[in-house]
Design goal:
about 140 residues, alpha/beta, 5-stranded parallel β-sheet, 5 strands
Length: about 140
């Protein structure tokens, strides 16, 4: 089971991404955040397998979120979902898993999730659960 955080200030985009993830895997848990600060505030308490982030927000940047995520977890996949091509080189310096241009589509999200499952070894559920438990224990300490 995937645990995914989506952060975008566009409610329509969030709804579509969440629905596509559920269409791909109905057991996935998707938490939606509409402001960077709200997600940053939950980083200590939540343990996600994947972060899908917009880059531009009125009050902050998805790059700031990614830097905060990296403080807690250097390995978790971060995907930027954006309308702006010019950030591609910048985001990969943050060890980004992927950079998906809007508009979102089933092909884009399903392809992304297929690669995420392979990267995280989701099909080997026991191994994945052990990794998640160890990460959570490390983050609490």
């Amino acid at each position: 089971m995937l645990r995914i955080a989506v952060c975008d200030d566009d409610f329509v985009v969030c709804d579509k991404v969440e629905q596509l993830i559920q269409d791909y895997d109905s057991t996935a848990i998707v938490d939606v955040y509409h402001t960077p600060q709200r997600l940053i505030n939950h980083l200590v308490d939540e343990n996600y397998d994947l972060y899908i982030l917009d880059i531009e927000f009125p009050e902050a940047s998805g790059l700031l979120i990614a830097k905060e995520i990296r403080r807690f977890d250097v390995d978790v996949p971060i995907v930027f979902l954006t309308s702006f091509e010019q950030y591609a080189m910048t985001v990969f310096k943050l060890h980004t898993f992927d950079y998906v241009l809007k508009p979102v589509s089933q092909d884009k999200i399903f392809s992304l999730l297929n690669r995420i499952k392979k990267y995280l070894d989701i099909d080997n559920n026991v191994k994945h659960q052990i990794k998640r438990t160890v990460k959570k224990q490390i983050n609490v300490q």
